Amino acid sequence: MQAQTSIQKLTQMAFFLALVIVLGLFPALPLGVLPVPIVLQNLAVLLMALLLPTRQAVTVMLGFLLLLALGLPVLSGGRGGLLLVVGPTAGYLWSWLLLAPVYRGFSHWLGRLWPRFQQSYSGRGLLLLLVNTCLVYPLGAAWLSWHQHLAYWPTLWANVVFLPGDFVKVALAVVVALALERALRLARN
């Protein structure tokens, strides 16, 4: 039984690592405001926060960052290399590592205050959007502003261009998570 559980966990982690990489095959949409493009890969990161336990999500993101640092073309647009892990946009990538633990922490806390929170997909989606906006944007902007010698607040405010896309990605992540959770419940019965 223990071996089957371990295989299931490894399979889930491999699936999400593959999903992050596959979504990286879609070309990035560059913006003139920031050197940070709009990418589809963070949709997989949002899904991990909703569906994977914290340790598994962090392990997947560490694996992704390791593959990226080793030079494999796993980042959007087929890019890879150590410079991307420490370059101007690295703060956004490293913040993906923290997204699931922070989301899960707040989700657990809200679940204690509001027992039906885990069943509320609009609540989970709103929390995910807030964590994404209040974690990824500030950390990414802080690293970018330090790396490029830019003022922090204007760099942070420039992230507003990502909000419409993130609304759509969070909504899509919640719909996919709902469908997957229902399918898994049906499969267990």
The residue ranges in which pLDDT falls below 50 over 5 or more consecutive positions are none
The proportion of residues in beta strands is under 5%
End-to-end distance, in Å? 18 Å
Structural classification: mainly alpha
Helical residue percent band: over 70%
Oligomeric composition of the shown chains: single chain
Number of strands: 0
Mean pLDDT: 91
* Main β sheet profile: none
Gyration radius, in Å: 17 Å
The best one-word shape is globular
Tally of helical runs: 8
Q: Helices and strands, in N-to-C order? A: HHHHHHHH
Key words describing this protein structure:
73% helix, 8 helices, mainly alpha, 189 residues
Topology:
Blueprint lengths: L1 H22 L17 H11 L2 H16 L12 H5 L3 H24 L7 H28 L3 H6 L5 H26 L1
Structure description:
The chain is mainly α and 189 residues long. Helix content is 73%, strand content 0%. The protein has 8 helices and no strands. It has helices at 2-23, 41-51, 54-69, 82-86, 90-113, 121-148, 152-157, 163-188. Helix 2 (41-51) packs parallel to helix 5, helix 2 crosses helix 8 and helix 6 crosses helix 8 (163-188). The radius of gyration is 17 Å and the shape is globular. It starts with a helix and ends with a helix.
